[in-house]
Write a structure and sequence with these properties.
By secondary structure, this protein is an all-alpha fold. It has a single domain (about 5-430), classed as MFS general substrate transporter like domains (Growth Hormone, Chain: A, Up-down Bundle), CATH 1.20.1250.20. It has 21 helices and no strands. The longest helix has about 30 residues, at about 240-270.
Length: about 425
């Protein structure tokens, strides 16, 4: 009788988390394409612009750690909703601020805008919550496909809005865009609250059943993955596993890089190649959409070929693309290099989370928090560094900034070779 009250299916669970992450990530898609507007109103330097477009990634990365681990005790819906609400507050706040101060009264407000951008970035932090929430819905053999679909489709948000925003700005204006995005996020938060469900185990626990009973009945319904301990335990247990930190480094480069470049590319295309805002937005959208969409395929490929092999090839693509981008002034070569970069980053992002249940099976939420959080921290760190390089070298510095990814790719190739050898040794011992 009790089981009849249990709600949801794996498919519905995946739909809820994917939509929630899509709406949350959409909240920060404005910052990159509109950075030029802030530059004009407040006379920002390249470094200040880099920090402005990166600030949502700071909260979007750091909040992933505790909120991702929290899933192991709640199932995910509660921490997910809290993050979406924080993002609503941040985006609503900056919308009100712009309505009263843009463009002539914005001097001296840079710090406040950074703070509101920090709050808006909480929407990005839903990623680690959704990863763990989704993971508990699916068996091990389907983790790559499920997590690839979740992350790939959810990650489409910044690309889609990088494509739409320039046309919206031309038609309706700067402040109207922020108001529209605020309403979109608010509606999305309500939709997530209505349709999202936690996996069966957490529903049984909420109904007062003990751990053993909840596991038994959840297994009867098909659930395979279960948490081990509370939030603190999940973080500590996953942190003790050294391979968690190897996965953090891999994710820092490709997902942190993805977030950072989605915000940075409008600046790169407009300042280095003198593109219009609309054209820069279009080229940014191509990168973001491709990196997101191919992540779905990357999950399937990782299931079939193995996460380590797929990650190795992906990082080689990132390395080659970064070398070309660092030194070319050709739009054509730059464009095809960006395509290569998007493929490498998107596929590696899927491969990394395919490896999480293999390396950290008893603390998925904690691992997702560390990997998603510290990995996404790259989205905050990388744009200001690229801005500093541009500040130092002038216009050509916008190209030389990609040297950051050459260094990161080489370092990560060493890590994945280590993991690959470790995997081979385990296979031989079986």
């Amino acid at each position: 009788m009790q089981q009849n009250k249990i709600k949801g299916t794996p498919g519905l669970g995946l739909l809820g988390t994917t939509l929630g992450f899509f709406f949350g990530f959409a909240a920060v898609s404005l910052y990159g394409p509109t950075a030029i507007k802030f530059k004009e109103a407040m006379e920002l330097t390249p470094v200040m612009m880099g920090l402005l477009v990166a600030i949502p990634a700071l909260s979007g990365s750091l909040l992933r750690i505790p909120f991702g681990a929290w899933v192991d005790t709640t199932g995910g819906k509660k921490p997910f909703l809290i993050l979406l609400i924080l993002s609503v507050i941040g985006l609503g706040g900056i919308t009100i601020l712009l309505n009263f101060t843009y463009p002539d009264k914005m001097h001296g407000l840079y710090g406040l805008i950074l703070f509101l951008g920090f709050l808006s970035g909480a929407g990005i932090a839903t990623f680690s919550v959704g990863i763990a929430q989704t993971s508990y819905w699916f068996p091990k053999k389907k983790q790559g496909v499920a997590l690839g679909a979740y992350a790939g489709l959810g990650n489409l948000a910044p690309g889609l809005f990088s494509l739409i925003l320039p046309f919206y700005l031309q038609s309706f204006g700067f402040i109207s865009a922020y108001f529209a995005w605020f309403l979109f996020l608010l509606i999305g938060t309500i939709i997530y609250a209505v349709i999202s469900q936690n996996a069966y185990y957490f529903q049984f626990r909420k109904r007062g059943k003990n751990d053993k009973e909840s596991r038994t009945q959840a297994k009867e319904l098909g659930q395979e993955m279960f948490p081990a301990g509370n939030v603190k335990d999940s973080l500590i247990n996953s942190a003790k596993i050294k391979n968690t930190w190897a996965l953090v480094a891999l994710y820092f480069t490709t997902f942190g890089g993805f977030i950072g470049l989605t915000a940075w590319f409008p600046i790169y295309w407009s300042q280095f190649h003198d593109f219009s805002l609309t054209k820069a937005g279009l080229f940014t959208a191509i990168f973001s959409l491709l990196a997101s969409a191919i992540r779905v395929y990357g999950g399937k490929l990782a299931d079939k070929a193995g996460g380590e092999k797929v990650s190795l090839v992906s990082l080689l693509l990132v390395l080659v693309a970064s070398i070309f981008l660092s030194y070319t002034q050709s739009v054509l070569i730059g464009f095809f290099s960006v395509i290569l970069l998007a493929v490498g980053m998107g596929v590696n992002n899927a491969a990394v989370f395919k490896l999480v249940p293999d390396y950290v099976p008893k603390a998925i939420g904690g691992a997702a928090g560390w990997i998603g959080g510290l990995g996404a921290f790259g989205g905050f760190v990388i744009p200001p560094i690229m801005g500093a390089i541009a500040n130092t070298y002038g216009k050509i510095g916008y190209a030389h900034g990609f040297f950051v990814f050459i260094v990161l790719a080489i370092f990560n190739l060493g890590i994945i070779v280590y993991l690959f050898r470790q995997h081979q040794r385990k296979t031989e011992m079986k």
